[in-house]
Amino acid sequence: MATQDRAIRTRRKILSAAAEVFESRGYRSATINEVLRTAGVTKGALYFHFQSKEDLAQGVLSAQDQVIELPERTSKVQALVDTVMLHAHRLQTDPMVRAGVRLTMDQTSNELDRKGPFLKWGSLACQLLEDARRQGELLPHVELQETADILTGAFAGIQSMSHALSDYDDLMQRSSALLRHILPSVVMPSLIAALDLSETRGSRVFAEVQAALEASAVAVP
């Protein structure tokens, strides 16, 4: 068990170092040696977990793209809003997410499979929209997958714009504005006023998730 725990810690240490290097240097310019120096591990330890730079980048993409389970929401549209705003908050505060987003957006990394995060976000958004439709929260004309893809693409563009203009400092404002512009064409008018689209929503949802995780950990005997 101790050996397994040590291996898990080493893998996390390598991924954290890779995230730091990829986020600062980009995929093409990053090197395995930089990751080794940052992580402070041997080449053998790194190659035990990751076979190549591409494998390491895919590990960062997978690590940043883990879906955080939100507390149950009465409104499924609010759940969609919270998913978007939570990701925006994590992008501002979590180096792993920042590195994963940079890799996903890096159009020079032709050898890297960057489809995963887009497909995962599109699928998640579509599922939340489908749940919202079952509850009568959507306008009748809404095409679920089309709307999910537009929201995913627009949110990706907002992230790129915020990164270029302010290093993500204004991401919460831009994300809130995006939702305020898109949702009225998708959601029943009677529901719009009840949604919390505020710029602080992401940080408050993150705190709620953390509190739920801590309570769950305490409850485990």
Provide the descriptors you would attach to this structure in a database record.
221 residues; Arc Repressor Mutant, subunit A; 11 helices; single chain; 73% helix; 2 domains; mainly alpha; Tetracycline Repressor, domain 2
Describe the structure.
The protein is mainly alpha-helical. The protein folds into 2 domains: 2-64, Homeodomain-like (Arc Repressor Mutant, subunit A), CATH 1.10.10.60; 76-219, Tetracycline Repressor, domain 2, CATH 1.10.357. It is 73% helix and 0% strand. Helix 5 (76-93) packs antiparallel against helix 7 (115-134) and helix 5 (76-93) packs antiparallel against helix 9 (171-182). It is globular and about 60 Å long.
What's a concise summary of this model?
Helices cover 73% and strands 0% of the residues. By secondary structure, it is mainly α. The model has no long low-confidence stretch (mean pLDDT 89).
